[in-house]
Amino acid sequence: xxxxxxxxxIGAGSMGSGFVVQFLRSGLDVTLVDHRxxxxxxxxxxxxxxxxxxAERDLAEIxxxxxxxxxxxxxxxxxxxxDVDIVLETISEELDAKQELFGALDDEADSDAVLAxxxxxxxITKIADGASEAADRIIGCHWWYPPYLLRPVEVIAGAETxxxxxxxLRAFLETVDRDPVTVDRDVPxxxxxxxxxxxxxxxxxxxxxxxxxxxxxxxxxxxxxxxRTAAIGPLETVDIAGLELFQTSANDIYPDLTDxxxxxxxxxxxxxxxxxxxxxxxxFFEYDRDPDEITGRRDERVASIRQALRTLEDDDATExx
Length: 321
Known about the structure:
alpha/beta, Rossmann fold, 8 strands, 3-hydroxybutyryl-CoA dehydrogenase activity, 3-OHacyl-CoA_DH_NAD-bd, NAD+ binding
């Protein structure tokens, strides 16, 4: 089975510009679609910056100038999806908007194109309700951000998604040097966001109830739990420590963990005060730097972790030869 070679990305936000870089470095024909030219212009600038970053750090063989010369940017969605192998949407996380989009793609895209959604947690079966005739070709394809640095990608079949569509998407992801993670049940949040939100829910509960400050919680997770998890996964951690120990700890701790089923009130409080995140200069913390500088610093740290892990993986491979 030939993996898809031409891809159209719909949505020129941060993820869309990241897709441009990852697909371009993999030698694919890439088109980026948005309903505003201004969004496309900003996405082009972000993609060039990301490509330059990868080239400077020797993380990829990519010419930043190719972001300008080798990618098509357009507001004409129908023309952009007419004859491509895969369409990947990364528009707003609103079910109605995604259903409307896939309903349109049912008519506009090639009848054999894979229609993929980068939704971070909306069930694929519900998204496909907007395009019942194409439901066998609609599939979840959830990337970690930034997509040009993190390798895992969740693959989620809806109730009507065909095995052929799953196989084609997995082949595509392997072609662009990504690691497909199979999600066997189409549940809200899939794997990554179920775990991420479980952690954040407890972090906010700890802050809200005065167990520890936001600064200390952030530091404990970033410099402790997350650092170790970059080396070994959570279930490996259980194996190393011993199942009996974790079972005992779970019975002691679980009754005191939050089981809140709505967003923590800390969100509403800060949003109401205009403290919406780095674009506003404040959220849970204060920021005095440009948002692009902040995300650039994050990329530097993630890249350093990836490079260190890659070196260890290469050393392990050499030892086993």
